[in-house]
Na(+)/H(+) antiporter subunit D (Natronorubrum aibiense), 608 residues
Amino acid sequence: MELDILSVAYPPLIILAAALLVLVLPRLAGFAVGALSLAAVLAISLLAPEGQHLAGTFLGFEVVPYYVDDFSRMIGLGLGFLGICSVIYAYSSDASETLTAFALAYVASSIGAAFAGDWLVLLFMWELMAVTSTLVVWHYGGEAVRAGFRYAIFHGTGGVLVMMAVAVHYVQTGTFIYTEAGIADGIPALLAVLGMGVNVAFIGFHTWLPDTYPRPHIAASVFLSVYTTKTSAFVLYRAFPLEGTHDLSIYVAYMGGLMAVYGATFALLQHDMRALLSYHIQAQLGYIVAAIGIGTPLATAGAMSHLFNNILFKSLLFMAVGVVIYRTGEEDLYKLGGLWREMPLTAVGFGLGALSITAIPGFNGYVSKGMIFDAADPGYYGQPEYQALYYLLWLGAIGTLLSFIKLGYYVFFHGESDIEVADAKPGQTVAMLGLGGACLLFGVWWQGLADLAPTIHGSDFAFSYYGGESHLHPYSLSHLETAGILTGVAAVTFVVVRKPLSKLDLGDPAMVVYPATYYVSRWTMLAVTETYAAVDAAVVGAVKRCYWVGNNPVLAVDAAARRLPMVDVEDRQPTDGGRPSTIHLRTSIGTTVLLLTLLLTIVLWLLL
């Protein structure tokens, strides 16, 4: 009976109901209901039976709004747990009820996309996610409004591309239901990659990340840092699943490797703390995208595990940095320093997140990132064509270490703090330490993470790979040596580049997309409007001349004759007494439409 109830308890509706209650209940009660709704999602994700639920038809199409498998279960657990912590953090960070209601609606659409079992429901949730996340950004006002418009344009464009991909997929396959092959190969796969590439921050499509996430309320940044990008990465897996064979897979894999390097590089150059973290969303998504492109069982397990871990440590880092901004009012990391004495709990929260994202042994990022490294390494489980990808992932890992050494050094350890500030509030501390504890738990108890990860069961890995069979253990001597080498190289490099790095102020070259788009749009608009005005003036002028000629044929002949050489024409008086010619055309809208329809019909008939 309990399992039957769970199969009809649709998670997004529970969260949407909580979002409405947040607006009408007293503040504490409303936030408590929001947290409880996400606790319900956590329980449903853990206990709901596998399979299709709430299946039916919509406009004659088969739909599955609620689909549970090992993949959606893992993502639901991560998003549900993060949601609880995020609501607690928002309450303690003075987020308004309206912002929290928008955020919960955003979370509901994200979880709806994760549990969707067909492309039609996915499209609805995808667009709802874009709308609600834009509202979360806009709510803060100020600079967030313009950033929100740019954000909406990006995600609107990506949504249109995904919609086109789904439409062509339906034409080719005759169904919207997910299949083991994923999205249809060819044009649907290409359109899906481009559309989903906007949400997962492919290079060139990524500029909305550092442009948007540093601008809204600190609690809004926590929600935004996870739900759009991680849900979209999961949907990318649905399009390119383990069993699928797509020609684009290797290109997706190498795009992921380039994202890891690009994101880490520009994170290293940032002064703004939330901009630095935003670039690292792109970098960490790069590892997930690369593993999805590789598509082997180990790579898929690594992608889903790193996605799950990213939900935990990325939101934790935004929380810790948010507390620093909340207490100091400062966004520039170079204007801070020595805060570990003033804010030890925040420093601990940041440290747990930084150690996780940089894949230090003992933390969850080390386990999941290790899976992806091993899946790409041709000397281990990878194929020869991924050798260059393996090197890109190495460079991205070094850049990640450098970035978080820099961020932690300048905010918490560099010099003495010249201000006295309070530490995190109790709710902020509970949220940070809850996420940090989970990061540590899945790093030490890595078997639990392995049990959650689809395509891996138990604590002992054995896969077929290029050249034979092998064995994998995350804390083997070779893996620990690799982690030590990466950490050592990054630490030495930071000592060498610290001073020149602090003087660099290089912008992201991809940001040219904003002024370029503005000027291209402006010139295009002017070209269209001026062309229309010129054509309109020419047509109106021609009609007036023709009407005048009809009223004054003799004067028209005289005027034409005067233009001829050696012709003498006497002056004549206009027949209308010199009054300007006027034409009055009066008709109803219906008659106008009828006349235009008849005219177009005649034109088409003549053309055909």
Notes: The mean pLDDT is 87. Residues 268 and 573 are 82 Å apart (CA to CA).
